[in-house]
Amino acid sequence: MRTRTTVRTGRLAAVGLSLGVALTLAGCGSEETDADAAVEVESSAPASESPSAAAPAGDETEVKIGKTLKDPDMGDTIEVVSAVRDFPSTEEADLIAEGGEVVLLQVKIKPGTEYGGRISEGNFEISWDNGGDFESSDTRLMTEELTAAKRTPLEDVQRRDGGEHTGWIAFQVEEKADTYLIEYERDGAKVIGSDKTIAEFTEQVEIPAS
To answer: What pLDDT digit, counting tens, does each position of 143-162 carry?
Structure first.
């Protein structure tokens, strides 16, 4: 699995340097040449706002999926409800500017109650190269943005609690693609206190083009 590394450039340092030049020139004395004045005006002009300071341009699109996954051994039911393409994240503005995309996935989970354990966003991964590699999500980086967009981040679901749980998962995709594959994977396990083993469960869902 590849590890995503997002490089965030520090443009504020450049802005501070420009303002420092202006202040230094202003304190050099009253005998200021025309050239010095021109430099001061140019250096003290407001720097253009960094691309990271605002959400990228473009409209998000929600696509319906509506596929249900049923884990026969654990009794879990996971519905992949929909996905949001081109989510205009400020937090991931650099990633988007470099050709990536923020993809949101809405899931509805009804866990089985026979066994313990939990279902979390860590069970879901995304691939933008037709399954060649899969990347994990990182919803915690975007909790505030999801909440502001009225999309509740998915919380861990404990099987023993039962019930039905709906939430959103955020994926930071390095290379934007027409379609993506989502893989849900539940590891195999041995039942404590018995010789019974439970095989792993894996299934994939396609996120269509926007």
So the answer is: 999 999 999 999 999 999 99
- Read off the pLDDT of each residue in 56-72 and give the average, rounded to a whole number: 89
- Give the CA distances from residue 177 to residues 2, 6, 123, in Å, rounded to whole numbers and listed in that order: 17, 18, 22
Q: What is the pLDDT of residues 11-48, one digit of tens each?
A: 333 333 232 323 232 344 444 444 443 333 333 334 43
Residue 11: phi, psi to the nearest 5? -75, -15
Asked whether the beta carbons of 157 and 108 are under 8 A apart, the reply is no
Q: pTM for this structure? A: 0.72
Count CB-CB contacts under 10 A for residue 130: 11
Q: Where are the alpha helices (DSSP H) in the chain?
A: 12-26, 34-43, 93-97, 143-148
What DSSP line would sit under 66-103, residue for residue? EEEEE-TTT--EEEEEEEEES---STTHHHHHTT-EEE
Distances (CA, A) of 151 to 83, 168, 169, 206: 12, 6, 9, 21
The pLDDT score that the predictor gives to residue 22 is 32
Paired residues of 79 in beta bridges: 68, 108
Question: Which tokens in the block code for residue 59?
Answer: 């409209």
Report the amino acid identity of residue 142.
M
Following DSSP, what letter does each residue of 160-176 receive, concatenated?
Answer: GG-S-EEEEEEEEESS-
- What are the counts of helices (DSSP H) followed by strands (DSSP E) for the chain? 4, 12
